[in-house]
Amino acid sequence: MTVHPGTSTSTSRQRVHDVDALRGFALMGIFIVNITFMASAYPGNLVDDPSFSSPLDDAARFAVAALFSMKFYLLFSFLFGYSFVLQMDAARRAGRAFAPRMLRRIVGLFVIGAVHIVVLYGGDVLTTYAVVGLVLLALHRVRDVVALRTAVGIYAVVVTSLVVSAVFLDRSAFMPSHEQALASAAGQTQALLGTPVDIVQHHLGGLELLVLQAVSLQGPTALAMFLLGMVAARRRLFEVLGERRSLLRRVQLVGFPVGLAGGVGYAMLGADADTLATTLSVITAPFLAAAYVATLVRLMHDRRTGRIRDALAPVGRLALTNYLAQSVVGVVLFTGVGLGLAGRVSPPMLALTALGVFVLLAVVSSWWLRRHRYGPAEYVLRWFTNWRRPERRSVDPRPR
To answer: Backbone dihedral region of 387: left (phi > 0), alpha (psi from -120 to 50 degrees) or beta?
Structure first.
């Protein structure tokens, strides 16, 4: 990260910590959503598991949909765009051409994501990021105003297409009935308890839906967030944001009412099972994500709660390793090659499990970074990106 005149090295490093901490926070939210798909095939079929139908189960599903679904993915995408500029800075400092280096990184992400889909979790995002990253690379020299207009335009197209679908398309014409979805979910959940071959087949069976979702929703919204993150990094947003408390308060005052209202509406309308609900979430999720960021930044820059940064930053610094580790945990807990708990864990317990695993990963990440410069996955990706073997040992015992 470039250190500007008048900015101390420690202050600049603190801002990198802010980005790492936000990335760790995003990983927590993503895991709370993803674990529901790892633990059962019912969410993927857009139906609730009838085995868990108590008011507490319904409340947990509602809370996850309203507070987490589609919000943390946007934040993670924004931070990917922000880190894209930091990668440009790193290439410039190293005296290396940026485009070849970034192309190798994108190829590496895609390969890791493809293996992730087959072996660990069919809901991978790395392959989508890799493909959309190619578009970002093609646009990385555009002016800020062009990047912002493109992001807004992409979002407008996504919202318009969803509105048209909600008004004019009859979902029942191409979606299975509720009974068919329940039967499919039961069979797929049973497949998770099978042999490694059964699990791989289950993952590959959802590939068509994954591609469709990536093309129609996740890919375009990710690109919009990439572009916004790129502009934010060019303007060194996190070098000044912590001191702009009035701005952070305004973001909270607007973001929480709009975002929470949209999240509640999304959950009440049936979440992803309803196109209108998805439209509402796409429109309002950025507001709630921004409010989360403002709140966390304020906490990290308060002397009484500043240690939150120290707890979250190691997770974000090892984001790729922890993202893959979450999927490994899912395999160990829920599939037939592990404990075989698929279809047996209630929604409230899934949320608590996700939080417990996240805390454990945070502790392990902090311990690892006191001994190593990079996480295992980051080490491999950096080796491929730079086309040379990185140093293993950490030169700074503190997370950076």
So the answer is: left
